[in-house]
Amino acid sequence: MSNTAVPLRRATLGDLPREVATPRYAATDLSPGIVHIGVGNFHRAHQAWYLHRLMQQGAARDWAIIGAGVRPGDAAMRERLLAQDCLTTLIELSPEGTSAEICGSMIGFLPVEPDNAALIAQMADPATRIVSLTVTEGGYFTDPGTGAFDPAHADIVFDAARPDTPRTAFGAIIAALARRRAAGTGPFTVQSCDNLRGNGDITRDTVLSLARLSDPDLAAWIETHCTFPNSMVDCIVPATGPAEIARARALGIEDAAPVTHENFRQWVIEDAFCAGRPDWDRVGATFTDRVHDYESMKIRILNAGHQVLANAGELLGRETIADCMADPDIGAFWRKVQREEIVPHVAAVPGMTPQDYAALIETRFANPAIRDTTRRVAFDGASRHPGFVLPVLRDALAAGAPVDGLCLVEALWARMCAGTREDGSEIAPNDPAWDTLHAAALAARQSPAVWLAQRGIYGDLAQEPRFAERFSHWLRLIWDEGTLAALRAYAATDPAP
Q1: Do 323 and 255 share a structural domain?
Q2: Contacts for 217-222 with beta carbons within 8 Å, 24 or more apart?
Q3: ∠327-332-334 over CA atoms, to 5°?
Q4: How distant, in Å, are the alpha carbons of 15, 56, 99, 102, 244 from that of 19?
Q5: Rounded to 5 degrees, what are φ and ψ at 78?
Q6: Is residue 2 pLDDT above 60, yes or no?
Q7: Are residues 64 and 39 part of one domain?
Q8: Can you give the residue range of the structural domain that contains 415?
C-alpha cells in the first residue's frame, strides 16, 4: 500500500489500494429513483449499502439515491460528499479485522434551502418513486408522552400556513405530492428508516395530519394513493471524527466523511411500495408482514439496552459502549435487566428467540473495535426513553412483572441530566431539551417526583405507585451513595415484582 492516501473521487477509484472494494458501475450507469432526506452515517452504512450491493450485481441501477437535508447542518455534509462525487468509504470493524469498500449508490445531493425548493422539485419529478428518511426518533413532530401528532409545534404551524414554502421534510413531501397530483404523475412511497416502532405508521400519521391542516382534499388523495411501509433497521454505526478519518487514510483513502460500522446488518421491511422498489431481498433484506415483531425485538433489546448502558457509563466515565460492557458492574446490570425485565416482554420471530437475540446483542455491544460512544447513545434521551424504555416498563407494570432495573435506568438518566459525573467532571449538554431536563434533574435531587412530573416524557406513569416509589428509591440512593452502590444493590436483588 502506498504511504500517500488517494483522494476519493470517481476518477481515482482505479488508484485505490487493491484490497479496497470499489463500485463495478460508473455514475453514468445510474439514474435516480430515491430521494433520501437525512444523509447521516447510518443511512450510508445501511440503506445506501444494500442498494450498492444490488448495483454491484448489475441490478437496480435506475434506483440511485439523491441526497437531501432540511437542517442547516446538512449543508456541511452536502459539501463534503459533493467534493468526493458522493462516494463513501465504508469501513467494517469486526473482532477478526478491518475491511473497506467504496459505496457509490448516491449520485447527487440537493441544495439545503430554507424553502426546500430544490427538494420539492426533485420529489415532484416522476423519476422519484421512493422518498426515504432518517431524521432521528425525535424528528416526527409527535408528543413524546402520547406519541400523537403535535399540531402546535412551531414548524408545523409554519408549514400549515405556508404549504408551498415549507421548512420541514414532511411539509416538503406534501408540497411535492401536491405537484404530482396536479400533474397526474402519481404518488411515491414514503419510507421511514428510523428506529421507531411502527415507523411507517408514524410517518403516515405525520404526513396526513400536516396535510389536513392546509389541504384536506390533498390529504385524502395521499391517504388513498401513497404507501408508508413499516421497517426495522439495524447496524451499529459510530459517529465520524478525526480517528475515523485517520483510519480511512491509513487504508490509503483520503475521505472527508468515512463511515465505520460493525459486521452486522439487518433490514426487515413491509412490502408496501406504490411505485415499485429495488429487490433488496436479493442482498439480505427481509420482506415480511411481521415487521412489528422484528422491530419490537430490536427496539426493546438493542435500543432500550443501549439506554440501560449509556447513562451509567456516562456517570462512571466509560467512553464507549464496549467499555460499558467490559465494566463488571455495568455489564452485570445490563444482563440482569435484559434477562429479568426486557426479554420476558419480547416475542420470538422466525429463527430467533428473544434470549438468543439478547446474546447476539451482548456480543455486538462488547465488540472493542466499534468505538460507539456513550455520549452518542445517550443523546436525545427525551425521545429515546419514551420510545425505547418506557413501553417495556408499561408492559411490565401491567403484567405485575419485575421493574426495579428499569426504574433504576430512569433514575440514572435523571442523575446524568444533572450534568456532572461521579468524579465531578462536567457532562456537556446532550439533548435538544437539555435546559428543561437539567433543571428538573437538579430539583429531583431533593424531590424525585419533579422528574416524573415531566408529562411530555412520562405521561401518566408518575401515577403508577410502584414505578414512582422505586424510581425515588434509586435516585436517592444514587445521590447519597453513588452509581456503583446503586448498581451493586440492584445486582443483589431477586427478580420478584
Answers
A1: no
A2: 218/174, 218/177, 218/178, 218/181, 221/177, 221/181, 222/174, 222/177, 222/187
A3: 95
A4: 11, 16, 8, 11, 18
A5: -60, -45
A6: no
A7: yes
A8: 295-491
For residue 1, the model assigns a pLDDT of 45
Contact 193, 46 (CB under 8 A): yes
pLDDT in tens, 276-302: 999 999 999 999 999 999 999 999 999
Three cell numbers written together for 384:
429515546
Give the Å distances, CA to CA, from 55 to 52, 106, 228.
Answer: 5, 11, 24
The helix-helix angle for 390-399 and 465-481 (nearest 10°) equals 120
In the block, which residue shows the cell 413501553?
Answer: 391
CATH of the domain at 359: 1.10.1040.10
Q: Report the pLDDT value the prediction gives residue 323, as an integer from 0 to 100.
A: 98
Q: Quick one: average pLDDT of 18-42?
A: 97
User: H helices then E strands: how many in the chain?
Assistant: 23, 13
Residue 142 covered by a domain: yes
pLDDT in tens, 190-248: 999 998 889 999 999 999 999 999 999 999 999 999 999 999 999 999 999 999 999 99
Residues 344 and 249 in one domain: no
* Residue at a domain's end among 233, 254, 289: 289
Determine the Cα angle at 26 with ends 191 and 87, to 5°.
60
Query: Nine-digit cell at 255?
Result: 475521505
Residues 200 and 299 occupy one common structural domain: no
Where is the domain boundary, 240, 266, 289?
A: 289
Indicate whether 1 belongs to any domain: no
The reply to whether 58 falls in a domain is yes
Matching residue, cell 429495488: 278
Q: How far apart are CA 12 and CA 477, in angstroms?
A: 59
pLDDT at 334 over 50: yes
Give the CATH number, domain containing residue 238.
Answer: 3.40.50.720
Closest listed residue to residue 40, CA positions, set 116, 106, 114: 106
Q: What are the φ/ψ torsions at residue 118 (nearest 5 degrees)?
A: -65, -40
Whether this prediction's pTM lies above 0.85 is answered by yes
Indicate if 319 and 249 belong to the same structural domain: no
| C-beta of residue 297 within 8 angstroms of C-beta of residue 349 | yes
Tally of domains within the chain: 2
